[in-house]
Design goal:
This protein is of the alpha+beta class. The chain folds into two domains: about 130 residues, no CATH class; about 35 residues, no CATH class. The protein is built from four helices and eight strands; from the N terminus they run βαβββββββααα. β4 and β5 form a beta hairpin. The longest helix has 10 residues. The radius of gyration is 25 Å and the shape is elongated. About 15% of the residues are buried. It binds zinc ion (ZN) (2 copies). The site of one zinc ion has 6 residues, from loops. One zinc ion (ZN) binds next to loops.
C-alpha cells in the first residue's frame, strides 16, 4: 500500500487524489484483532510547499475476539485519516516533528500509518456488544447463549438470612 508523490513534488500548491486498496485478510494487528477483506484508503494530498498534507478516509473490516465472552465477531470501520509527508531535505524546518512521515523516495509506504490509525480507533475493551453478558466464571457457559446450571445451585439469600437466625 504505497502512494507515489513524484508528480506532486514537482507541482507546489497542487493536490492529487489517491485511492488505495489491499487485501490484508488474516493479518493480526494486536492479539484478538485481525483484518479481514480489503482495506480501502482514499486520500487527497496537497503540496503546501514544504509539506504535503493528506486528508481522507480509511475503510476496513475487522474480525475481533470479544474481551468478555471470547466470541469472534466482525465489524466494519470507517474513519478519517490525516497524514503529513515531509521530504528529508525539509526536515530541518520542522525540528523532527514526530508525527510526520519523512521521505526521500517519493514512493511512500502507507501501511504503518494506516494500521496505526486503525489500532488507535479501537476501544480499550473490545466487546461484541455493550450488552454482552460474558461467561460463567464457574463452568464457562456463554450467557449470551443461555443460562447454565451453576446459578440454580446458588443459595437463595432468603435461606441464607434464615440460617443466620437459627
Ligand atoms: Zn461478547
Ligand atoms: Zn456456570
Amino acid at each position: 500500500m504505497q502512494i507515489d508523490l513524484s508528480w506532486l513534488k514537482l507541482h507546489p500548491k497542487s493536490a492529487e487524489e489517491f485511492r488505495l486498496e489491499k487485501d490484508y485478510s488474516g493479518l493480526e494487528l494486536i492479539q484478538g484483532v485481525r483484518l479481514f477483506g480489503r482495506v480501502l484508503v482514499s486520500l487527497t494530498v496537497t503540496n503546501t510547499g514544504r509539506l504535503m498534507v493528506g486528508q481522507g478516509e480509511i475503510k476496513a473490516g475487522l474480525e475481533m475476539d470479544c474481551d468478555r465472552c471470547l466470541g469472534i465477531f466482525c465489524q466494519e470501520i470507517q474513519m478519517p485519516i490525516t497524514v503529513e509527508f515531509c521530504e528529508e531535505e525539509n526536515r530541518r524546518f520542522f525540528k523532527d516533528e514526530e508525527s510526520f512521515i519523512y521521505f526521500e523516495d517519493p514512493k511512500v509506504n502507507l501501511e504503518p500509518v494506516v494500521q496505526g490509525n486503525i489500532l488507535l480507533s479501537l476501544p480499550l475493551r473490545v466487546l461484541c456488544s455493550d450488552e454482552c453478558l460474558g461467561l460463567c466464571s464457574k463452568c464457562g457457559q456463554n450467557f449470551n447463549q443461555g443460562k447454565c446450571q451453576c446459578r440454580d445451585e446458588e443459595i437463595d439469600p432468603r435461606w441464607e438470612a434464615l440460617k443466620k437466625m437459627l
